[in-house]
Structures are given as structure tokens and as C-alpha cells.
């Protein structure tokens, strides 16, 4: 039955009366603390997390269409650590898919407690979102055909060199600023890095620029011949070029203003078990060929 105008206003007035009263009561009483993540998990028995499917080796879909990656193993470890801390026999894990576009919003909207992936630690204007301590360091690198190694000089201007980048990323902006004479080829969507690596293999672009660890994993996933493709520079932290000092530290995205949760996540990252997981996943990926030291 459709409400009359007067009944709508009456309901609206009741709402505002309730809101005003609620604010008055809060102001007259002791501050009410929001429930922490650990308190919420203890009450509900549910851990809410998200992982990307386009960021091997952190999260990716294998040939059988199953989600794989370091983050899944880390989340399994986190589940066990939580059960120990909260003295629970069981714990449900709700897993969502995250993207570069929604990962912060998932935290802000309370849909997840943690997002695991290649999240560059940086200053945030969002008070309700924070990063864990760093769990991985990487640098910007270029995937190129080995035969191009002598031609592509990162200390030069890369004029007329076609470089693939993922649209609307910090790397796109950095490459534009560092090499204004280069010809940028933009890739978008969750298959952007995949298609960029394919474009290098097909000879459609000279190089694909991205975080080194993600390029290594994608190249390995596509079975690029290791004797025909390399990553340059070998280490941007020690290589004198325009991208020096642009290394990235990855952290988990977590809720802000919750030091108890942040400390717990940091303790899991620092644990012996976490270090073993790190070694299992990344020692294999790091074997992809680097630029020679000549």
C-alpha cells in the first residue's frame, strides 16, 4: 500500500528523532569503541579475506580454473594462528575476489578483514584503511627479448621504444615521466599483464614494464623460453638508471585504527612458518633469468 505524504514525513521525523537521541546518549555517556576485527572473528567465527586472481604468484587462476598462489597458503596459516589465539577448534573463511579497483573499498565497507596481494605500501588519505608490515620487496623491471639487451639502454631516453604498461598505475606514470620519448602501449583489465607478456613474445612491443616479481611469475606461467627472454635491470636498487630507488614494498591491506589486528597480522608475517612459505613460493620464481652483469 502506498504511503501518504504525511505518513512519510511522520516516519522521517521519527527517524531523525531517534538519530538525535542516539547522538545525545553517546555524547552523555562514555565513548563507545567499535568492535575490533579480532572481537568480530571471535564472535562470528568467520574470517573475511580477499585475493586477486591476476597477480601470480600471489593470487592467480591455474589451467584448471582453480585459484592458487602464495596468498592462499598465507591465509591458511593465518586461519591456524587465529584458531590458536582465539582458542577455537574451527573457523570459517569467507574468500572474495579483489581487484586493483576495489581492494580498499572492500576493507572500508567491512566486507573483508584483510586483502592479500601485491599492495605497494604508501601514505594513505584513508584513515579506515592501513597496511601491514612489508612481506615482500620488488623493483620495476622490463621484460625483453634477450636479443634486444644491447639496444634497450635504460640510461638513455628510449626514444621510439615501445613499452607496455598497465593503464592507470603508478608504473605508467613513472615511465611517462622517466622516458617521455618512449612509445607507451597500454593494457587494461585483469589480463593486462598476461597480454603484455604475450606482446613481447610476439614481437609487438619491445618491452613490458611492471613489478619484477609479477613479470617473473607471468613469464614462468606462459613458459617463455628462459634462454630467449630476460628482465632488466638486474636490480634497480643498485643499478644507476632513471628508475633507481623505485623499489616497492608489499603489505597486506587491513582495517585502520585497529592496532591489535595490525600487530597480530604483523606477528603472522614475521613467524617462522610464514618465512618458510615465502621461501617455498619465491625461491622458484626468482630463478627466472636476469640481465647479465656485464
UniProtKB/TrEMBL annotation:
Keyword match Chaperone: no
Species of provenance: Hyella patelloides LEGE 07179
Protein name: Extracellular solute-binding protein family 3
Gene Ontology cellular-component terms listed: extracellular region; outer membrane-bounded periplasmic space
Residues of the Solute-binding protein family 3/N-terminal domain: 46-285
Family affiliation: Belongs to the bacterial solute-binding protein 3 family.
UniProtKB keywords: Signal, Transport
A Pfam match: SBP_bac_3
One BP annotation, GO: amino acid transport
Signal peptide annotation: 1-34
PANTHER family, A to Z: ABC TRANSPORTER GLUTAMINE-BINDING PROTEIN GLNH (PTHR30085:SF6), AMINO ACID ABC TRANSPORTER PERMEASE (PTHR30085)
